[in-house]
Amino acid sequence: MATGFLIYFLKFLERGKILRKGDKTVKKFLVTALLSLIAIGTVNAQLTATAQVGVTVTVSSVNSITLSQSGGSLTFDPATGQTNTIQFNTTYNLDGTATSIKLYSWFSTPAAALATSNNNNISSSQIAATFMTSGVSSSSGVPCNQAPGIGSGVVDGGACAAALLNNQSLNGGPITSSGGGSIATTYSLAILNYGPSLKLAAGAYTGTLNVMAFAS
Q1: For a tag on the chain, would you pick the N or C end, based on fewer CB atoms within 10 A?
Q2: What is the pLDDT of residue 9?
C-alpha cells in the first residue's frame, strides 16, 4: 500500500511539472523522506502496555450437615408394642476433616420417656430403637439408656444406640463430597419385652424423641 502511494505521488509531481522525469536525486530524496514518515507513523501506532496485574479469585464453602425427617410421628401399636417406621435423611457437605458421621437419638427425661397425665410413665430403658442405614449399620433391641458422653444436648442415660452413617473406612478415605452427599436411615421404636406379661396401663402416652446428626 505504501509503495503504490509513492508511485502515485511521484507521477502526480511529474504531471504537475513540479518534478522532472530525469531528476533522480530529487526522487530518491522524496522517496526516502516519505518512507521515513510512514515508518514514524507505524512506530507511533504501536501499543503501549502497563505492567501485569494479578487478581486473586476465591470461593468459600463451609462444612455443613443437616437432618430432615419424613413419615410423620412415631405411634406405638398397643397390640405389638412397636411403632411405624419413619426415615431420617442426613445431608452433608464436608471438607475431609471429619472421620465419621453418626445419628444420635435420645429422650430428655429418661425416667419418663413417655408419660400420661396420671403419671403412668414408660422409662427410656424400656424402649429400644430399630434402625438401618443401608450397607452401613443397623441395630435393634438395645435399650435407650445409653450414655454416649458427647454432650451437645444428648442426654446420657436416655440415649438410644447411635446409628453409624459413614466413616473413613467405609468411605475409602476422608469423608468429602462434591457438592454434598445424602444418607437415608429408617427408624422405629419398640417397647422391650412387650407381650402378655407386659401391657400398658390405659392412658394417652406422649413423649419427644430428639434426634441429631454429628460429623466428627
Answers
A1: N
A2: 57
